[in-house]
Design a protein that fits this description.
Elements lengths: L3 E8 L6 H9 L17 E7 L2 E7 L9 H15 L3 E7 L6 H12 L4 E6 L7 H9 L6 E4 L8 H11 L17 H16 L9 E11 L2 E10 L2 H8 L4 H18 L2 E10 L7 H6 L8
Parallel strand pairs: 1-3, 1-4, 4-5, 5-6, 8-9
Antiparallel strand pairs: 2-3, 7-8
Helix pairs in contact: 6-8
Family: Belongs to the TRAFAC class TrmE-Era-EngA-EngB-Septin-like GTPase superfamily. Era GTPase family.
Organism: Sulfobacillus harzensis
GO biological process, one term: ribosomal small subunit assembly
Length: 296
C-alpha cells in the first residue's frame, strides 16, 4: 500500500480548543493552551505518525476582529494555512452558540477551496449534542463532521482514522522521530508567556511578548536561560513584576518547573521585564519578537 501524507489546518475562532486538540492527538505538549482567547499567535506544526502515513497538523491563531497589526498577521496566518492545506478542520465549541467569528471562519474555509470538516469540540460540556450542532452545521456545506472532547480525549480515534484515509498518497514531509518543527527558543518563550497568561488579567496578557536572549548549558545538568518579557506600558511592567517582585517570581517558578520537565534537569531561568510602547503595531518590533508577516 502506498504511503500517505498531507497537511491539515486546524482553524476556528479563539478559545475553541484547537491547541488542546493538537496536544491530545500528539500525546505531548507542543502548543500552549490557556482559557484566554488568542493564546496562539503563530502557526504551530505537530506531526502525527502512523504506520504508512504522516499527518502534518497545523494549529493556527483564532480568527477574530483585529485591532492592531499583530491581530492582522494572526488572521492572515490562519487564512494562508487553510489555503495551503489538503484538509481543513473547522473546530467549534459546542458549549457556545455560533457568532460572527464562526461565520468568518466558515467563509474563509469556503473561499480556500479545500475540503472542510466540522470538528465539534467540548462535547463533554453539553447535555444535548444534537441541539447544539444544528446552528453550526448550517454555516456551510461540510464534507464530514465529528463530535470530540479534546480535554477528555474522546472521539479522537475516529477523527484520526478518517483523516488518515483522506490523506493523498505521497512521501513523508518530516523524519519519523520529529513531532514539531518549532525551535527550542520558541518553545521556551511560549512556556513563559503561558504563565503570564495564566497569572494576569485584563489587557496585560494580550500586551505581552517574550524573547529568549541567552540559552547556555552551564553544566551537563544545568541550563541557564535569560528571557525578556515585553509589555506596552510602564504600568503593566509594574503589575507584571508585582510587589517585591512576587508576580515575576511566580511566573518564573511555574515556567521553570515546566522547562525542567522538558529538559530533564535543573534550569536557571532569569526573567527581565521591559517596556516597548505599541509594539503590536510596529513592523520592526513584530519581526524582532517573532511575528513575521506571513508570505502572500
Amino acid at each position: 500500500m502506498a504511503y500517505k501524507s498531507g497537511f491539515v489546518a486546524l482553524v476556528g475562532r479563539p478559545n475553541v480548543g484547537k491547541s488542546t486538540l493538537l496536544n491530545a492527538l500528539l500525546g505531548r505538549k507542543v502548543a500552549i493552551a490557556t482559557p484566554k482567547p488568542q493564546t496562539t499567535r503563530n502557526r504551530i506544526v505537530g506531526i502525527l505518525h502512523r504506520p504508512g502515513a504522516q499527518v502534518v497538523l497545523v494549529d493556527t491563531p483564532g480568527v477574530h476582529r483585529a485591532e492592531h497589526k499583530l491581530g492582522e498577521r494572526m488572521n492572515k496566518t490562519a487564512r494562508l494555512s487553510a489555503k495551503d492545506a489538503d484538509l481543513i478542520w473547522h473546530i467549534i465549541d459546542l458549549s457556545r452558540a455560533p457568532n460572527q467569528e464562526d461565520r468568518w471562519v466558515a467563509n474563509m474555509s469556503r473561499e480556500s477551496r479545500v475540503p472542510v470538516w466540522l470538528v465539534m469540540n467540548k462535547a463533554d460540556l453539553v447535555e444535548s449534542v444534537k441541539e447544539r450542532w444544528e446552528p453550526y452545521r448550517a454555516l456551510m456545506d461540510y464534507q464530514n463532521q465529528f463530535v470530540v472532547s479534546a480535554a477528555r480525549e474522546t472521539g479522537l480515534s475516529v477523527l484520526v482514522d478518517e483523516t488518515l484515509s483522506f490523506m493523498p498518497e505521497g512521501d513523508p514531509y518530516y523524519p519519523p522521530d520529529m513531532v514539531t518543527d518549532q525551535s527550542e527558543d520558541f518553545y521556551i518563550a511560549e512556556v513563559v508567556r503561558e504563565q503570564v497568561l495564566e497569572l494576569t488579567r485584563e489587557e496585560i496578557p494580550y500586551s505581552v511578548a517574550v524573547t529568549v536572549e541567552e540559552r547556555t548549558a552551564r553544566k551537563p545538568d544545568l541550563t541557564y536561560i535569560r528571557a525578556t518579557i515585553f509589555v506596552e506600558r510602564e504600568g503593566q511592567k509594574g503589575i507584571l513584576i508585582g510587589e517585591g517582585g512576587r508576580m515575576l517570581k511566580e511566573i518564573g517558578r511555574r515556567a521553570r518547573g515546566e522547562l525542567e520537565a522538558y529538559y530533564g534537569h535543573q534550569v536557571f531561568l532569569d526573567l527581565w521585564v521591559k517596556t516597548r510602547e505599541r509594539w503590536r503595531d510596529q513592523d520592526a518590533w513584530l519581526r524582532r519578537l517573532g511575528y513575521e508577516e506571513p508570505e502572500r
